[in-house]
Amino acid sequence: MSSENLQGEKALKKLKDIVNDVNIAMMCTTQKDNSIHSRPMATAGIDDDGTIWFFTNEGSEKVKEIENDNGLCLCYSEPKNNTYACVMGKAKAVDNKAKEKELWNPILKAWFPKGLEDPNMTLIKVSPNHAEYWDANDSKMVVFLKIAKAAITGKSYDAEDSHGEMKL
């Protein structure tokens, strides 16, 4: 069983590749009663330093939860490509008009009808500090065959060769 531990530029490249490929994350925040609240969020962008950005409504529950406890987890999942990642970090709501303009996509008008002038729009800035990934780079059929082989031979299926951690 081997697991790769990435740091520095290699970790950032792996993180950017997964975030850009998968794009939708389950954003998990902590509510005041310490329960976890999750919701799907489209990633607006990822900077060269690994900072991940999301658009949101400034009055949303997630903004309140981030203000209460800024730790969160982003879970990216792409079963079709056997790619998964959990990104842990700190978040904060930021009003940065230049960044909003840089990240703006016309599809966002569905949530922000006034576009870049929408007074309710803000950004969530996530500064990751640790991540884990599972990236088999194999098709579903190949993974299925590896599992079947393990079952037939009585050996354990080892998915660890596709697992690693990223220190960010």
Give the helices and strands, then pairings.
Elements: E1 4-7, H1 8-22, E2 24-30, E3 36-42, E4 45-46, E5 52-57, H2 61-68, E6 71-78, E7 83-94, H3 97-103, E8 121-135, H4 140-153, E9 163-167
Parallel strand pairs: 1-9
Antiparallel strand pairs: 2-3, 2-6, 4-5, 5-8, 6-7, 7-8, 8-9
Summed up, what is this model?
The chain has 168 residues and is of the alpha+beta class.
Give the helix/strand class.
alpha+beta
Give the % helix. Answer: 25-40%
The Rg value, from CA coordinates, equals: 18 Å
Mean pLDDT: 86
Number of strands: 9
SSE order? EHEEEEHEEHEHE
| Beta-strand percentage range | 35-45%
Uncertain stretches: none
**Number of helical regions:** 4
* Shape label: globular
The largest β sheet comes out as: 9 strands, mixed
* Spatial separation of the terminal alpha carbons: 23 Å
Task: Throw out a few tags for this protein.
nine-stranded mixed sheet; 9 strands; about 170 residues; alpha+beta; single chain; 4 helices
